[in-house]
TrEMBL record:
Organism expressing this protein natively: Polaribacter pectinis
PANTHER family, sorted: PEPTIDE METHIONINE SULFOXIDE REDUCTASE (PTHR43774), PEPTIDE METHIONINE SULFOXIDE REDUCTASE MSRA 2 (PTHR43774:SF1)
Pfam families found in the cross-reference section: PMSR (PF01625)
TM region(s), chain numbering: none
Recorded catalytic activity of this chain's protein: L-methionyl-[protein] + [thioredoxin]-disulfide + H2O = L-methionyl-(S)-S-oxide-[protein] + [thioredoxin]-dithiol; [thioredoxin]-disulfide + L-methionine + H2O = L-methionine (S)-S-oxide + [thioredoxin]-dithiol
Keyword Oxidoreductase: yes
InterPro entries, per database record: Met_Sox_Rdtase_MsrA_dom (IPR002569), Met_Sox_Rdtase_MsrA_sf (IPR036509)
Ranges where the Peptide methionine sulphoxide reductase MsrA domain occurs: 6-154
Keyword Oxidoreductase: yes
List of catalytic residues: C13
Protein name (database record): Peptide methionine sulfoxide reductase MsrA
Length: 169
């Protein structure tokens, strides 16, 4: 049996994040949902404090947490507080939900690399939040841009990797 891992991130509207991550090497599955909020069983219309997040299932033999975060910082703007594109509010915050101290330290390291690159204007405001229950969003939100290819997204690749061979291990 393979040993797969999961990562939890939020970077604005979950549709665009899912669409870009689904085709990344080593990503085996994506689910959009709600994380980091106040209520159990949140819904699109009732998710106070939750971010629109994404659960990534990945094969650590093909990618790693640092590479996932590198791509995360390339496809959304981590310098805007509670906003991505036209979407505003805490649901659209940039956040990394770490599951252990190793992930937290990797996240801090990648944030420093991103800031030191000066590719983004402004300071990275991505929050580091302890993992909280991930609630899968309603079926109509899963694979949204596959079903509606011209649907709304504000996510796209903006830069080449932030990582060098020295920083990617």
């Amino acid at each position: 049996m393979k040993s797969y891992k999961k990562a939890y991130i939020a970077g604005g509207c979950f549709w665009g994040m899912e669409d870009l991550f689904r085709v990344r090497p080593g990503i085996l599955d994506t689910e959009v949902g709600y994380i980091g909020g106040e209520n159990d069983n949140p819904t699109y219309k009732n998710h106070p404090g939750h971010a629109e997040g994404i659960e990534l299932t990945y094969n650590p033999a093909e990618t790693n947490f640092k590479e996932i975060l590198d791509y995360f910082f390339r496809v959304h703007n981590p310098t805007t507080i509670d906003q991505q594109g036209n979407d505003k509010g805490s649901s659209y915050r940039s956040a990394i939900f770490f599951q252990n101290e190793e992930e937290k330290e990797i996240a801090k390291e990648v944030i420093k690399i991103v800031e030191d690159s000066n590719k983004w204007e402004g300071k990275v405001v991505t929050t580091l939040e302890p993992f909280a229950p991930f609630w899968v969003a309603e079926p109509e939100h899963q694979d949204y841009l596959v079903r509606i290819p011209n649907g709304y997204t504000c996510h796209f690749e903006r830069f080449d990797t932030f990582l060098t061979e020295k920083t990617s291990s």
